[in-house]
Amino acid sequence: MAEGQKAPAFRLPRDGGNVVTLSDYADQKLVLFFYPRADTPGCTREAIDFTRLKGDFAAAGTAVLGISADPLKAQEKFRDKHSLGIPLISDEHHEMLQAYGAWGEKSMYGKTFLGILRTTVLIGSDGKVARIWRNVRVDGHADEVLAAARSL
């Protein structure tokens, strides 16, 4: 996937039991932040930062969704524990993660494995990928994404 391409469609379950699709966000900007695992330190900070800026994103005409491979029960526990205000999507089969380039080879302690690559994608109101952040560093990231959304 590359900037300028049409965003890949998706249909996945979200916290609260509903289903979310890309077409639900037609004609508005959308931020997708892919995080490795619910309730880990970096992922928690990132989700809290996006929640903190939720009103600013809304004012910029931009919706925000968090996506991981965690089951819905883990997503809901994460949401409730940290009072998160961003819808959380479960992609247990990695279909959306792969389509958006957020699933790939990682390494830790000398071992290589497949996992979620911390990635954020900004989709314009035209349905095309406007910006991709790969190998995201959490600190200040949500603010940077908000600035990019405002500039579209």
TrEMBL record:
One of its GO terms (cellular component) is cytoplasm. CDD domains: PRX_BCP. It is an enzyme of class 1 (oxidoreductase). The active site is at 43 (cysteine sulfenic acid (-soh) intermediate). The keyword Oxidoreductase applies. It catalyses: a hydroperoxide + [thioredoxin]-dithiol = an alcohol + [thioredoxin]-disulfide + H2O. Its EC number is 1.11.1.24. PANTHER family: AHPC_TSA FAMILY PROTEIN, THIOREDOXIN-DEPENDENT PEROXIDE REDUCTASE. This is thioredoxin-dependent peroxiredoxin. It comes from Bradyrhizobium manausense.
